[in-house]
Amino acid sequence: MALVSLPALTLSPLSALGQTAANNAPAQPAPYARFGKGPTVFAVLLPPRGGAFDRAADCVLAGIRAAHSIDGAEISVDAIVSLEDPAGLSATLTSLRDRGVKFVIGPLTRNGANAVRTLDAVEVPTLVLNLPEGDLSARSSSRAVYFGLAIESESRQAASQAFAQGLALDGGRKPRALMIVADNRLSVRSAVAFTEEWQSLGGELSDPIEFTGDRPPRDLRARLGTPAPDVAFLAMTPEQARGVRRELDPKMLAWGTSQVSIGNTRTLRLPELDGLRVLEMPWHVEPEHPAVMAYPKAPAHYSVEMQRLYALGIDAFRLARQMHAGGASFELDGVTGRLRYDSQGVARIDRVSVPAQYRTGRPMPIQGPAGSN
């Protein structure tokens, strides 16, 4: 693991975009943070400070700084606080273009991603760190490309891999899956994506089982039916999954996303989840991965979710650097997964996660380097 001392940030006072100066000209966005001394200038768009996304933005920015400390000798980075409505983003991007900024990373929120998608023109090549709502299959003339850690992508990968496993159980019979879903928006989004992919593959589905709180329904085992489903998809947290797993036949194939992963924690172990397969990023399950070893560790106080955002920042800078250098189509062995970009295809970075399985209480990679599955 590289041990690198990150440079201190140069902080500037925050300025509200859209504020007018005495001459009624729009104020220029002032940097929230600036680092690097290279001649090429990148910008990072942060949501307005003092809101719910402060911690997430700080984690992503820390990851960008970490990647810059290794790969950014020729690049300077300005972190800009920007409004995330279409008018505010358009004004920010125009200002950054006029200042000679060559590439923009952000915005970070789904609202910001939706706003970028509505713009008639994106003035600077931009890597948006979230996925907008709706279908991205129709590529526009926009210079924006979208990249994120969407739970839906992991759910579709889980469905595909679980379906292949299920087919092998009984001579090609179409497998049947059961979704056990916690009562929250993230879990429901995950379950919907799994359902769509599973059905597109021709798999059968039992009626989903939903529950609230940390305890599964008391009649869960009875509701599994006879014969029991081939695959159980758990859309829930690790703590919720502990109770569910006790009620399932240990031989039943069980799958989840990173939502049910405890990551690479040194102290926590959940042996009740042994056998459960999840989709994870190399950052959490492949410490010997070359990219994971190349970049500074996240701060010790970062939670599992904060580390995911830190890893997102690392790969965001690496992608931006390669796209700015003229990478029309490329693959990148990232710390968040195997990343693929095709400038002639969908305006999105495709991310292939690492299949992992709980063993001795923690998720361990099933196969080799990310993307080898």
Summarize the structure.
With 373 residues, this protein is α/β, with parallel strands linked by helices. 31% of the residues lie in helices and 21% in strands.
- The total count of helices amounts to 10
Number of domains: 2
The largest sheet has its strands arranged as 1-2-4-3-5-6-7
| Residues in helices, as a percent range | 25-40%
Query: Strand percentage, roughly?
Result: 15-25%
How would you sum up the major sheet?
7 strands, mixed
Helix-strand pattern, N to C? EEEHEHEHEEHEHEEHEHEEHHHEEEEE
What top-tier CATH class of the largest domain fits best?
Alpha Beta
Report the C-alpha radius of gyration, rounded: 22 Å
Low-confidence stretches: 1-28, 368-373
The average pLDDT is 87
Distance between the termini: 25 Å
Instruction: Name the overall outline.
Output: elongated
CATH superfamily of the largest domain: Response regulator
Structural class: alpha/beta
Find the count of extended strands (DSSP E, 2+ residues): 18
Q: What is the architecture of the largest domain at the second tier of CATH?
A: 3-Layer(aba) Sandwich
CATH topology of the largest domain: Rossmann fold
Explain what you see.
The structure is a single chain. The chain has helices at 54-71, 86-98, 110-118, 151-167, 185-200, 220-223, 238-247, 282-285, 290-294, 304-324, and strands at residues 10-11, 31-35, 40-46, 75-81, 103-105, 126-128, 144-146, 176-182, 204-205, 209-211, 231-235, 253-255, 277-280, 329-333, 338-342, 350-352, 354-359, 362-365. With 373 residues, the protein is of the alpha/beta class. The protein has two domains: 1-149 and 286-352, Rossmann fold (3-Layer(aba) Sandwich); 152-280, Response regulator (Rossmann fold, 3-Layer(aba) Sandwich), CATH 3.40.50.2300. Strands 1-2-4-3-5-6-7 form a seven-stranded mixed sheet, with helices on both faces. Strands 8, 9, 10, 11 and 12 form a five-stranded parallel sheet that branches. A hairpin with a 4-residue loop joins strand 14 (329-333) and strand 15. The longest helix has 21 residues, at 304-324. The radius of gyration is 22 Å and the shape is elongated. Mean pLDDT is 87; it is low at 1-28 and 368-373.
